[in-house]
Design a protein that fits this description.
The complex is a heterodimer of chains A (about 450) and B (about 100). With about 450 residues, chain A is of the alpha+beta class. Chain A is built from 12 helices and 19 strands. In chain A, about 30% of the residues lie in helices and about 30% in strands. Chain A has a 10-stranded mixed beta sheet, sandwiched between helices. In chain A, strands 5, 6, 15, 16, 17 and 18 form a 6-stranded antiparallel beta sheet that branches. Chain A has a 3-stranded antiparallel beta sheet with strand order 10-11-14. Chain A is elongated. By secondary structure, chain B is α+β, with helices and mostly antiparallel strands. Helices cover about 20% and strands about 30% of the residues of chain B. Chain B has a 4-stranded antiparallel beta sheet with strand order 2-3-5-4, with helices on one face. Classes of the chains: A alpha+beta (about 450), B alpha+beta (about 100).
């Protein structure tokens, strides 16, 4: 019989405020590993393309202080992945800077491993030319042109770079982009726990207590045993139930039974969930199915342009009824205004009409403003340059504001702007252009590990 | 007859990666789950029509242990692209509410 091993998941989004009580309760249980996920692709292409820190300030510092002290208190290794949201090098460096400062402030001396996940374009190009880059799902095939346009490319690392860092003596590991399972599965797998169960456990606790009822953001614990694992929220009023735990496999996953990971699939088709007491569920039957080759998922974004916005409300029922035609006429005027100066391919102009179909778009079952007494219009312009975006947005705003329409009574302005200036810069715009699988012969080769001692 | 939003306890949408939208419908008890499955109101054909996608872009899953149904649909545009309306895909579930269940 293997002894049990306790893995504490501090947070699904470190830097956004770890609930303290539940985390302390987890630390008091003397976990063997503390893990935290810091990122996701969900906040969109800006975080990846710009490389800017998305989390920062006291929220990040407080959370890092909490997990570092938890690790010091228990002696458990601390593993963190997807530093700074997208897991770019610049974001990893930003997080490491805060960790160093906290360690110094608290007199905590430790061996730190950092593992960047940025992938050089030439590595991707070599595979692309060899024809072994595949789309991940329904995504256009990658071209060299798109590869060249990418401003940031990362790959999701598996458990192996974390394991190597631990073998090298790391007490704290901070990684760039990583699979959300890697931090929680790396050490139990080194100790020989079943891979299907370990990966399933990791998948459940990486979102903290989202797998409980009611779901929350509190720390949760996975306990690995011989042929099973047990999952539990560290919040006393959150129960894990067979339904809540089974249902978590649905969350943000396209297929709830086959979860793709580097080197294989977690197969949950035969997983069994058993309530062992009021708040804990035991899971058995999850199976690891290795794939024929080890691939990592690449994520990349390109810089598309710059955004300017004008926005406001419409209260006049006559203008509400005319909004679509005023928007269309404005679009034509803008295009005529810039003939010979700004090429139509250098900008996109989108009227987002809230109150009609701005959220569901063509899927909207009731794209009518007949019942609306007030609507909101967002004039969204993305231009190749800031100046193009600003010019187009300004002209569009002005014509939309003052265009005459049939039946008009109010000849002084069609839209109520809440702000001055009424044309607002919204910064650089990025779009995803790489979401592909790339083979990795050695799962560690793409992710160089740097060791050092900090604090003390 | 009853509407889906009168039977389910969770109806939600979210991205599953930037190129896929996934819709989850959860039930409080097995009877409700069985009723909706039996009514065949959530099928790939019907979801493809509702979300205006070719049927090949739609997958429907039944999860009896989780008392849940899942619909995964290729996003019409990637999350965060210029034509996107919903970065997290968090408000795309509403067309499911009025589905009539026998």
């Amino acid at each position: 019989m293997k002894p049990e091993m306790k893995i504490l998941a501090a947070s699904g989004q470190l830097g956004y405020g770890i609930p303290e009580e539940a985390f302390r309760r987890g630390v008091a249980r003397q976990p063997d590993v503390i893990g935290a996920d810091m990122g996701s692709i969900d906040p969109g292409p800006y975080c990846l393309g710009s490389g800017e820190m998305v989390v920062a300030g006291e929220g990040l510092r407080r959370d890092l202080r909490m997990v570092l002290e938890g690790a010091k208190e228990t002696g458990a290794p601390l593993l963190m992945g997807s530093a700074g949201t997208a897991g770019r090098r610049s974001q990893l460096d930003g997080v490491v800077e805060v960790v160093e400062s906290v360690a110094k402030e608290r007199g905590i001396k430790l061996r730190l491993a950092t593992i960047p996940a940025d992938i050089p374009k030439e590595v991707v190009r070599k595979h692309l030319r060899a024809g072994d880059i595949e789309p991940c799902g329904t995504v256009p095939a990658l071209t060299e042109e798109e590869l060249d346009r990418a401003t940031g490319i990362v790959a999701q690392m598996g458990v192996e770079p974390f394991q190597r860092a631990i073998e090298m003596g790391a007490e704290v590991v901070i990684a760039g982009r990583a699979c959300d399972t890697s931090m929680f599965a790396a050490i139990p797998l080194m100790k020989g726990y079943d891979k299907g169960l370990t990966m399933h456990m990791a998948k459940l606790i990486e979102c903290a207590s989202a797998c409980a009822d009611p779901g929350g953001r509190d720390a949760s614990m996975g306990v690995m045993g011989d042929g099973y694992f047990v999952v539990e929220s560290m919040h006393p009023r959150q129960r894990c139930t067979p339904v809540s735990v089974a249902a978590h496999a649905l969350y943000e996953q396209s297929d709830p039974f086959q979860l793709e990971e580097p080197g294989g699939i977690i197969d949950l088709a035969e997983s069994r969930y058993e309530q062992i007491d009021e708040r804990r569920v035991r899971v058995t039957g999850s199976v690891w199915r290795p794939s024929s080759r080890y691939c990592v998922k690449l994520e990349g974004a390109r810089h598309t342009g710059f955004r300017y916005l004008a926005m406001g409300g419409i209260r006049d029922p006559r203008m509400i009824a005319a909004t679509d035609s005023v928007a269309e006429e404005t679009r034509q005027i803008v295009s005529r205004t810039f003939v010979g100066s700004i090429d139509p391919s250098d900008y996109t102009l989108t009227f987002r009409i809230y109150g009609k179909d701005a959220v569901l778009g063509p899927v909207e079952p009731t794209p009518s403003m007949a019942q609306a007494h007030e609507i909101f219009v967002l004039i969204d312009v993305v231009g190749r340059t800031e100046l193009i975006a600003k010019s187009v947005c300004g002209v569009a705003k002005q014509f939309f504001l003052h265009l005459r329409y049939p039946g008009i009574l109010c000849t002084s302005g069609n839209i109520a702007h809440p702000f001055s200036p009424d044309v607002l810069a919204a910064g650089a715009v990025y779009e995803f252009n790489i979401y592909h699988l790339m083979p990795a012969g050695d799962p560690c080769a793409l992710f160089p590990i740097q060791m050092r001692t900090i604090g003390g | 007859m009853a509407r889906l939003d009168e039977i389910a306890i969770v109806i939600r949408s979210k991205n599953a990666g930037p190129f896929c939208l996934t819709l989850d419908v959860l039930f409080a008890d097995e009877a409700s789950y069985r009723r909706v499955v039996a009514a065949q109101a959530i099928t790939a054909e019907k979801m493809a029509a509702l979300y205006r996608q070719p049927i090949g872009n739609v997958q429907v899953y039944h999860h009896p242990i989780a008392l849940a149904m899942k619909v995964s649909i290729v996003r019409s545009v990637p999350a965060g692209s210029l034509a996107d309306t919903d970065l997290y895909g968090a408000q795309q579930h509403v067309p499911l509410y009025p589905i009539e269940i026998a």
